[in-house]
Amino acid sequence: MRIAPEILDTADDVGREAALQIADAIAEAAAEGRTFVLGCPSGRSPIATYANLAALVAERDLDLSTVVVALMDEYVEAAGDGYRAIDPDLPHSCVGFGRREILGLLNAAATPGHRIPDAGLWHPDPAAPAGEYDRALAAAGGIDVFLLASGASDGHVALNPVGAAADTVTRVVPLGEDTRRDNLSTTSLWAGAPHYVAASPNLPVAEALLRTLDQLYHLNLSLKDLARAAQRFNNRVSNLVAADPDVTAYVHDLEQKLNSAEAGEVVDGEGFNPDLSGIHNIPRVGELPSAEEAILDVEAYLRRRREQNGTDDAE
Predict the structure, then answer these.
(1) Is the peptide bond before 204 cis (omega within 30 degrees of 0)?
(2) Are 201 and 161 in contact (CB under 8 A)?
(3) Which domain holds residue 113?
(4) Number of compact structural domains in the chain
(5) Burial degree of 158 (CB within 10 A; 0-12, 13-18, 19+)
(6) Which of 103, 107, 113, 259 has a CA 20 to 30 Å removed from the CA of 239?
């Protein structure tokens, strides 16, 4: 069967039209009391569709409780004699994308009781036999609507290499070089550094970013010299902190605030949220503090510490 393509002006126009068709199909499936399976890619292409679909979910109060989001692919890494899916918290994880950009977006728009359950996000398991994912989808009644996105350079679909048979099943395949380069251009990595270490370049941060990039794309970078330099950097910072009681106390308070935040403890001020240091008051709405205001906050904190310790010297 040949389908005549419909060409629209902008990416948002495409997303809006696709979302309208999906929303209508979801409502029809809900009225019939059956599961609706939506096949989804990650990446840039479907972003407008997911955003427009979320708007329709809120506008129509769509019931998504029987929707299954079936991801088309996931990145894997070697594990023993086989493979395992990468950590979903990594920025390029398809499962992580599905949780944040699909379920997170749609469920935020849906009312309680009408949301997609966590178990409604399906993805292939690299440890399963080839074709197992396909059989599970078939048992669910097949895919109702599948959004397809193709690679920018070579037109790959679902990470299948160019030339793969149309009837191929879900399986582990090596990434093509064009696919690697496409993904490299959109990779987003970040590393945290204490804001009291105002050094540029920050060698531990540089090492962490390069090591992660090396793991993602198997670049075989030699990082031994950088790792040794980063360790010397850390040792020097530790020595400088230990040599100044005020800075030592400041860092100790930072660590306590960080531990409290990681434990889920929340401390609210009226109209403000303290940052992890407990020093800077960040408005719940409006602009962040300026650099000058942040410096004044730190100076005020250090003065309080000196006064508490009876070491306030005239300057």
Answers:
(1) no
(2) no
(3) 11-184
(4) 3
(5) buried
(6) 259
